[in-house]
Amino acid sequence: MVGKLRFIVFICVLFLYRSASAQVPDEQSINGLRQELIQLRQEYQSRIQELEQRIDAMEEQPAAQQAAADVATAGGSLGVLSNSAFNPAIGVIFSGQAWGDNNDPETIRIPGFPLGGEAGPGPEGLVLGETEMDFNANVDDKFTAWLTLPIVIEDGEVTVELEEAWIETLGLPNGFAARFGRFFSGIGYLNGKHAHAWDFVDQPLPYQAFLGNQYVDDGIQVRWLAPTDLYVELGGELLRGGRYPAAGDVDSGFGGRSAFMHVGGDAGINNSWLVGLSYLHVGSDGRPSGDENDPLLFSGDSDLLIAEFVWKWSPQGNWKQKNFVLQGEYLQRSEDGDYRLPNGSVLPYDANQSGWYIQALYQPIPRWRFGARIDMLSAGDPGTLFTGTDLDPKDDDPVRFSLMTDWSNSEFSRLRLQFAHTDYGTIGDNQWGLQYIHSIGAHGAHAF
Amino acid sequence: MTRIIILILLIILPLVCRADLSVFACEPEWEALAREIGHDLVDTYSATTALQDPHYIQARPGLIAKVRNADLVICSGAQLEIGWLPVLLTKANNPKVIPGKPGFLEASAYVHRLEIPASVDRGQGDIHPQGNPHIQTDPRNISLVAEGLASRLIALDPANESSYQSGLAEFQQRWQQAISRWEIMAAPLKGSKVIVHHKSWVYLEQWLGMQEVANLEPVPGIPPTASHLSQLLSQFGRGEADYIIRAPFQDAKASEWLAERTGIPAIMLPLTIGGSDAARDLFSLFDDILNRLLGVQP
């Protein structure tokens, strides 16, 4: 307003000056006008500067506004009835291996531990592993969804499996979250890790023996995180009991339940740690294990206890340059029920079994990791009734030593070399393999 | 029994009755900015330090516990933290700080981002579809984020609106003065040619009119290789660049190797607060960056 007024005055003055210029100008008025002009020029310069700054700010602003608009009206602003803006994040993971074994993998049995579920040695030679498709997106402001579809080749036939399909809450108060659908049980440290995130080609022996590699089932999971700086997570699950180590959907389809607790934190800037304790109870009715075509069938109760620890070290916490991970778990299973043997006889079974593994991984320079693992099982004695069957622990406890090294060009590609020696007591088994794990598309962040 | 109840209350009450806004910053610069605006009204924590590559952070239990108790999460965004932040957010069970809520602030959404790729292909390396996320190296970006951060703090804690307003106004005034000072200081850097380890400095270069002529990484995110370095040596063998720049968490070997053979000075620049002894806050961060560049000015 003042500026406008001054402008009018300036014009008037100019007019007066021009009309007055015909007359003899006196020195004083010229000086006054000069000063006025200088003042006006300064004022306009500062106003122009201010305007320039505003334009600059407005040019930068659209980035923020656009981002906000994207969030608010994704799709809508496109002006077309297209649903493509809501596409979930999609990723595909490719894996495969070249595998060698000095014994025929088909004939290898772990004495006392007939394997079930997905567990067991893979085929020899060049073979395509799981091709895993992942989809995930928020359903709305309260729910998020995840889907994992591995494409596997079984007996020459391509099948799409439904490994995971779950919904999780986003909006529960007080540190609670619930997950429902089909998911990896939250017990233990390795149970929830997807195969592409494993540090070795295969799962440790106790995970193979007691969980069929990994326990995945239909159910509901509730977790609570304590409001403390120390990480304390408590969780519980109610599960259908349809998959190994359960079977037969006992208790009208409420055949499994679990509870777990994880505690963790940082120790200085270089170290972080996690410990956990988990319990799983499942009932089984005719759970197959051992030979696929001629299985043993277990009916009864299984109780599994898992204790875990993980320690991660990295100088200054700068993970990319150098890091070291030490982890181990102890699993103990007690089963009470009866086994139907392939010959038709039904024998009462009541035994405790246990197993553990400990592994160390060292990444001395970016992209290269070196790892060693030792895993062991010890079978309880089910009694003389089982002598000569797959459940006979024979004499020695199986123990395995594995070495691996892998190279990751980026976080999306990995090539791995592994060598393992297993001592089954009666036979020694050497395995070696090369594995690749590559991913394209959206790749979810990895948990600790 | 009463004693136990009192003990439990003593443990739990301080956790529940937090008066201050708890701010979880992914990087130290945003933690510092929150303190500049909120002063003692905010409790701040930075998930990373200047000595860590923010692309590669473990989603540690300690970080999840911090996010669980946060009222505001502020991160650079533009996928800088995509390898770990999503896990923290999903495992923290804190509905206040998930994307889309006022408690989640992506700093890069407030600035004009550079290097938004026309096509996205991982063959080009670890590129970010939403543009270069290292926005903090241009102080004018900090100023833009400050505005956004202040309005979030006010939205989350309206009772203290006037304090945040005055904190912002006071910061902006000092910051604009500092920018003017830095721009005068940095005038000799205009037009200088830089080789960078990783593309972390595009905003600094744009601000000061510097020219990025090469990267030590063959493609973003892939560590320098011998063949790429020898190619750079033949290209810059007669010293056709003025600086080789790296951040403190990047291996010095590659830049020193090239510096030795080309005579181009290799310098470490703090990418954020704490990257050098001198970079103690936002102001001294830029002081130090400029001092280090001007100290070896050709």
Protein model, in words:
The complex is a heterodimer of chains A (448) and B (298). Chain A is of the alpha+beta class. Chain A has a single domain, classed as Porin (Beta Barrel). Chain A is built from four helices and 18 strands. In chain A, a hairpin with a 5-residue loop joins strand 16 (399-407) and strand 17 (413-423). In chain A, helix 1 runs antiparallel to helix 2. Chain B has two domains: 17-181, Nitrogenase molybdenum iron protein domain (Rossmann fold); 187-295, Rossmann fold (3-Layer(aba) Sandwich). Chain B has ten helices and eight strands. Chain B has helices at residues 2-16, 28-38, 61-68, 85-91, 139-156, 161-185, 202-208, 226-236, 252-262, 282-295, and strands at 21-25, 42-46, 72-75, 104-106, 193-196, 211-215, 243-246, 266-268. In chain B, the strands form two sheets. Chain B has a four-stranded parallel sheet, with helices on one face. Chain B is globular.
Q: Which key features would you list for this structure?
A:
heterodimer, A: 448 residues, alpha+beta, Porin, 16-stranded antiparallel barrel, elongated, B: 298 residues, alpha/beta, Rossmann fold, 2 domains, 4-stranded parallel β-sheet, 10 helices, 8 strands, globular
Secondary-structure topology with pairs:
The complex is a heterodimer of chains A (448) and B (298).
Chain A: H1 2-21, H2 27-73, E1 89-101, E2 125-128, E3 131-138, E4 143-154, E5 157-160, E6 164-169, E7 176-184, H3 205-211, E8 216-225, E9 231-239, H4 250-253, E10 256-267, E11 271-289, E12 296-313, E13 323-340, E14 346-365, E15 368-378, E16 399-407, E17 413-423, E18 428-441
Antiparallel strand pairs in A: 1-2, 1-3, 1-18, 3-4, 4-5, 4-6, 6-7, 7-8, 8-9, 9-10, 10-11, 11-12, 12-13, 13-14, 14-15, 15-16, 16-17, 17-18
Chain B: H1 2-16, E1 21-25, H2 28-38, E2 42-46, H3 61-68, E3 72-75, H4 85-91, E4 104-106, H5 139-156, H6 161-185, E5 193-196, H7 202-208, E6 211-215, H8 226-236, E7 243-246, H9 252-262, E8 266-268, H10 282-295
Parallel strand pairs in B: 1-2, 1-3, 3-4, 5-6, 5-7, 7-8
Helix pairs in contact in B: 2-5, 3-4, 5-6, 6-10, 8-9
